[in-house]
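User: quick one
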Amino acid sequence: MNTSPKYNPQEIEKKWQEKWVADRLYEVKENDPHPKFYALTMFPYTSGDLHIGHWYAMAPSDVQARFKRMQGYNVLHPIGFDAFGLPAENAAISRGIHPYTWTMNNIENMRRQLKTIGAIYDWSREVITCVPEYYKWTQWFFLKLYEAGLAYRAEAPVNWCGKCQTVLANEQVTSEGLCERCNTPVVRKYLEQWFFRITRYAEELLDHSKIDWPERIKIMQKNWIGKSYGADLSFGLEYKGIAEKELRVFTTRPDTIYGVTFFVMAPEHPLVPKLTAPERKAAVEKYIHQTLRQTEIERTSVEKEKTGVFLGSYVINKVNEEKVPIWIADYVLPSYGTGAVMAVPAHDQRDFEFAKKYGLPISVVIAPPDWDGKELDAAWVENGTMVNSAQFNGMPSDKAFDAICDYMESKNWGKRAVTYRLRDWLISRQRYWGAPIPVIYCQKCGIVPVPEKDLPVLLPQDAEFRPTGESPLKYCESFVNTKCPKCSAPAQRETDTMDTFMCSSWYFLRYTSPDADNYPFDKARMKFWMPVDLYTGGAEHANMHLLYARFFNKAIRDIGVVNFDEPFTRLFNQGIIIYKGEKMSKSKGNVVTPDVYIGELGADAVRAYLMFVGPWEMGGEWNDNGIVGMSRWLNRVWNLVTANYTARTTTPDAEKELLRITHQTIKRVTQDMERFRFNTMLAALMEFTNYLGKVQDEGTVSASAWQQAISTLLLLLAPSAPHLAEELWVTTGHPYSIHNQKWPTWNEELAKEEEVTLVIQVNGKLRDKVTVPVSITEDEAKKLALSQERIKPYLNNKQPAKIIYVPGRLINIVVG
RNA sequence: GCCGAGGUGGCGGAAUGGUAGACGCGGCGGACUUAAAAUCCGCUUUCCGCGAGGAAGUGUGGGUUCGAGUCCCUCCCUCGGCACCA
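Assistant: Done. Structure below.
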């Protein structure tokens, strides 16, 4: 009779969490003799509540970190909060709470929630990005980048809401191009902004050869950086009142140069006013005005019909001295290439549509195969044979690419060139709740960086939060007005703050020594832990945080702050948890709160269930019933371990089998852990539990063999269900703590099967199965297969044409 | 449009080119119970068959192979990313 207490997750989870903290079980030291392992999980934004989606990121990463810890690594698995950002400010405006208070209250709640997960977080290393001790160093890094020439100020187009009288971040503009807050159409405006020169690192950022990252993330970054090979070509310019004698374009198709029939500039191109003929002035200005009123989203919509106007001026195509009309059109972007294109309507679909609309000539210079010389229905963008291209006629177009580049270079009309799609990183935010950009503007001295000794530039406590959307810093005189650090004349502070991605570009360095106060980190401790061995988080950051952090690392490497090329050696992206068919989000109202399930079934059940829904990288669906099954299994483990075991009819064979299955399970669980297949890892443990249940019923092994199997089960379960495993470990008489035990290893010999089931197929169809010793020879196996009563009818008394034998698997008899 | 990941029972999902559907949920039947819950045991891809057994079956259509969910080609659908990038 089992008289042990029932499994009570709430009680044991609270008990062990308190004890682990009291014993400082998970505090991490640098002087530990074990090899270091830095297991980083993306820190959460301080939105207020953790939902199951957060747990899906946190729980399996903790399992992995615990697994590494048991394997003998000194594991740093820290946690902190990404605490600056817009929502805090919006809360301040709508509810009258100061962003600091709002954020800190949220952190308190999230910290409480995070502690219920039962993770090995070392809370003594907690990092919060919005406290002065942290953002002082974010500002310090800005100064270092500025000194290195990697931060600069320039005019840039931004999203402007006329009603709110402010700039909006891209994230604040709805997909319809409206202001998120007031639904006013957002327009473009040109403002002075701070940028980081990420483009200087475009080439190095394309190189992922030093890191072990998922292929899809590497591809996403490659596409985002967008390297194009082509040529910079020069077109002649003869226009009164203009000094320039040429206009340059970037093209990926220099082979189509003879097919240029018009020339298109971005409406914002600085030379447009000068190249506009007097009689075209009104039309051109009207068009420019229309373009500027469009949002980025409207302008770049693919469905939109092409529009443009003729400037009344011409360029000369140097290869054939043809006069080519210059147009402006909003499909040409000012920020890519040279802001101007040579239009080849026969071989570019956009130019084709434009030419059709405005009746411009379409000249084929690359003949498609079997071309009949007639008009094209669409641009031919593939390779072909050169035609109408002077001395290049008859050449395959891919060869002509090089030939024409050589020709242009020899004439000094252009040269081969590479262009990137990547733009510099705009870090200015017209917001209060961010790290102030540490810069002062002086009438006399211009832009003056705040001296290092004056850091941090503190956010003023007395800023006002008005519902107008204006930056509270701009109207906070005590903040704005200061003295020039150089000449002491009255001067003004920069009122923009930094993009929060700046804060998250170095937080993992801070974890290594969060108490450092004369440098962003303690150099020795940072060197000890970095780079991160395993980084886990969502794939949605592929082209933001993950790219910024790589850039930032390379920038500070070149400044001499760190000495490694990449911050994250290995990356793993978990998928997304969906609920009721959609991604969980507050706005959709389909958020599942973990607290309820922890209260009812315990954190161990929630952790294990999240791992069980599917492969971690694929994401999965939260199912309210599914977790009940996980809870049932943990209960079965509890009952199995706490029940008295009585050996009845023990046999050597039964013990051998138990040992075999134990070692097979160790192998499966270990290998699944290593490849992040937590779902099948738990399935293996469930099978093991089911098997142990049978052994217990039958009492076929000795008590000591039983105890051995049970303790292995608990060790394998420890990372996934740390509280349950600890409780059962201690109650079965083992020394505290299970989390300081060695991960079990398997013995291949003991795991080996003695008998296998051979499948017998006839013409590939399963017809019978036989159980044979693994030592069976090929001849014996074939003979056995042919002699099976169930097989004989399929043979028709004929000799089989062929017999395929796969040892340990099957025999396939091929009959004619 | 381009790039990437997917498409397997009623559901979530397992399957180094070799027994498709592990494990779990749900469902059905049974045990225990006055009864219910909980727990335990059995069954559960579909169709035909009393049964033994047979047939079909991994989005579609082809191909390679003794053998294909898995490899190759065509197309369709879902999800994620990018998108007038010259």
